[in-house]
Amino acid sequence: MRALRTPVGAASAVLLTVLVALALFAPLLWGDRAAAIDTDALQQGPSADHLLGTDSLGRDIFYRVLVATRLTIGFALLATLIGVTTGIVLGAAPAVLPRLAGRLVTSVVNIAVAFPGLLLALFFAVIFGAGTKGAVLAIAFAIAPSFARLTQTLTASVSGRDYIAAARVCGVGRFRLLTRHVLPNIAEPLVINATMAAGSALIALAGLSFLGIGVQAPSYDWGRLLGEGLNRIYVTPAPALGAAVAVVVAGLAFNLFGEAAAAAAGDRQQARPRSLPPRESTVDSGGGDDGVLTVRNLRVAFPGAAGWVTPVRGVSFTVRQGEMIGVVGESGSGKSLTALAVSRLVERPGVVTADRLEFGGKPLLGTSDRELGTSLAMVFQDPMTSFNPTSRVGRQLAEVSEVHHGLSRKAAFERAVDRLKAVRIPSAAKRARQYPHEFSGGMRQRAMIAMGLMGEPRLVIADEPTTALDVTVQREVLRLLARIRAERSAAVLLISHDITVVAQTCDRVLVMYAGRIVEELPIDELFTSARHPYTTALLAAVPDLDTDREAPLAVIPGRPPEPGEIEAGCPFAPRCPLAHERCRQEPELIAVDDGHRVACWRMEAELVDAAVGAPEARQTGETQRASGPSDGGSDE
Ligand SMILES: Nc1ncnc2c1ncn2[C@@H]1O[C@H](COP(=O)(O)OP(=O)(O)OP(=O)(O)O)[C@@H](O)[C@H]1O
């Protein structure tokens, strides 16, 4: 509609309407006059009776041009429909086919795209033979490769969005993911490009008819009329001009309307949030444990220009039933990648490995999509991108139960309404019928949590769930997570860059720096017993009531290293006021107390000093190192 408000859009829309009207009504109104042979008026020039003259049988060329609109537009649209459909199927196929077959399809498309469209059209026209059917198929197959490429590109651009990740966490199958979540969200650019393709198809079809390999007598389209008119262009140009003007005007109308629609869509796109990079996982795991989530030596690596980079470098922790664990660290420390890896959402070319990666005591890789979809809930940072914008909120929630619990559409929808009520969405039944954009940010985030509650989640992973929300709504969302944990005994892994949020809500905190855990400790010891210089620096950077308002806020000098910049030694050393010679080597995470682990050489030194002073203490320290974490439940 926005396109119609521009002069180009409005003018091309009027032209298209006229063309469609002509295609529908011209043969009914003037079909007889266009076919009437008049041997007394053969090959005449323009006159008041015959505006564009007559042909070799005395038929009125003006009426023939009008009547030919139906065949020309009809076949152009048919060719576009076949071409676009074939292209979309080919473009979407790699997303649903096994990897090898998908690659094969992509290669075929890549080769086909390299050939000029008109060349392909002529090639297919020869294969299918002269005639309307051949011309339509030739043009359709010439259009298809560029649409396949477009579909592939658009699919890739939305496949990293949070709502796709959310649907994948819920175990939605590839085909359904494609038809319900990907295609509706790329429909707009596809339709716009299809409109422009119709213009090109019309011109190409006219070209084939003009060359004599398109529409055959006694049928006629603008291309054939142009060919006939051209034979006597030096005697009277009007017969050729009529068809030529019709082809140009119609081709332009389609193309300009497509351009105007694209420009209008482009304006809207600028306001849309950007997508995340695509992710998937290939995970090694094994062993068994009674924790809800057991992670040992988790590593996530990506190929880079100068070799592999490893943003997550050997992370180990355990999450137990009903526990709320906070993960803090500056941007880029690997918090989100850790969460994505345990949700099986790191995509190729990313590689995830771990000595143990278990969910509910079973290897994560062996956990079925259905089980993972109903027992692991993921809440993302940006509530705007977490939902598919083209589908009603209730339907998106219901999808989980349709897929996993085999509930009917109606029953699944009722369950969705029930879960929306559980997260205190007012007028839940009405809200369930609304689209995500009709929800406020906080409501969307609660609806996202409700989606996790469609199953019976044993673990809720919330990745910066409150960052995009104002303080009051933040508190509501955090309270809701705490309530779910209390009422349903679900474990919660809360990722945040804000250590105070974690301090207010969690039982334990994992502090991450440069892809590793540098400290883990119970929350009640956070402000009193934090030992790692990075944790103490994070705490010092939090203003409190005693903070001098005149003095500048404390900041940690320097910046964390990028994954590709991490060198040997403690990665925090360049920013650490206590760094010394020993820090040229990277310290291990060692247990210093019950549930308290620290990766800092100072701790090693303290343990050794303590051990020298008290032989029994030395024994304890060594025992702790050997057995890993105690109550904290993790080792490395
Ligand atoms: N697909 C990817 N390919 C290459 N590098 C990646 C990819 N995804 C993330 N990274 C890198 O991994 C590092 C850790 O990213 P991650 O998103 O886990 O950080 P984070 O601690 O969650 O930070 P933030 O709080 O900003 O989200 C970053 O430096 C990031 O650039």
Automatic annotation (TrEMBL):
The chain crosses the membrane at residues 73-97, 104-128, 190-213, 233-258. Keywords: ATP-binding, Cell membrane, Membrane, Nucleotide-binding, Transmembrane, Transmembrane helix, Transport. It comes from the Bacteria. Residues 69-258 form the ABC transmembrane type-1 domain. Residues 268-290, 612-636 are annotated as: Disordered. Residues 295-539 form the ABC transporter domain. It is found in: Cell membrane; Membrane. It is a multi-pass membrane protein; Peripheral membrane protein. NCBIfam families: oligo_HPY. Belongs to the binding-protein-dependent transport system permease family. This is Dipeptide/oligopeptide/nickel ABC transporter permease/ATP-binding protein. It comes from Lentzea miocenica.
